[in-house]
Amino acid sequence: MIKILTYNINGIRAVLKKGFLTWLQQTNADVIGLQEIKATADKIPVKDFEDLGYHCYFHPAKKPGYSGVAILSKQKPINIIEGIGNPKFDDEGRVIIAEFESFSFLSAYFPSGASSFERHEYKQEFLAHFFEFVKTCPKKLIIGGDLNICHQLIDIYDPVGLLQASGFLQTERKWLCYLLDLGFTDTFRMFNQEPHNYTWFSYMAGAKQRNLGWRIDYLLTNKNLIPKVKNCLILKEVNFSDHCPVMLTLKPDLLVKH
Q1: What is the CATH number of the domain that holds 34?
Q2: b/e for 84-93, b at 16 or more Cβ within 10 A?
Q3: Does pLDDT of 157 surpass 70?
Q4: Which of 146, 155, 186, 217 is catalytic?
């Protein structure tokens, strides 16, 4: 099987101190999208990842210690695209794409609009630009990442009390519906329609233990790839950051392993 992983690690240097490389080796994912790497490539021990068999590609933010995305892949992509073609967003290291012969993988870290009105407006602009950008992407595309949006009522622990919270606003949820209408499928919901499945927990005391979370990390698969999908799981037991990784399993003929 082919395993594709997305994980907001909230600082690559921080997770490396917690045994992240050992876990990564055990997981043995073929393609990995990382978000919030919070470091430039020269600050990352790239050889440690290469020793595990990964080709490494980073798109950091210009602001030190902030944002940034990456893709690790056991097969070398035929092309890498950094950003969505707009410096306003690309300077924050929000999107990176690896193109393979049979599909493309996009690792994304969407902005949070929670801190201020200005950041809320920034997020709305990003969503509009990202939507148009995706329309130009290859037909066989997998989007993995922290979208900072809960899609449905069952994707958040308190849908009534948090109805006006950034990340659960009606406009944001509708935007995600529009994205899915472009031909994408939320692969986790292909296999699990149950509530209380979350990928992010705040650092407030006991949030994860009490399962008070949000499902904001996704692996969205273009409809052309649906026949290849085998399963999608939230790896809730993994605790390197305030997010949980999400793992998509695909049929083995999608990617040639080297």
Answers
A1: 3.60.10.10
A2: beeeebbebb
A3: yes
A4: 146
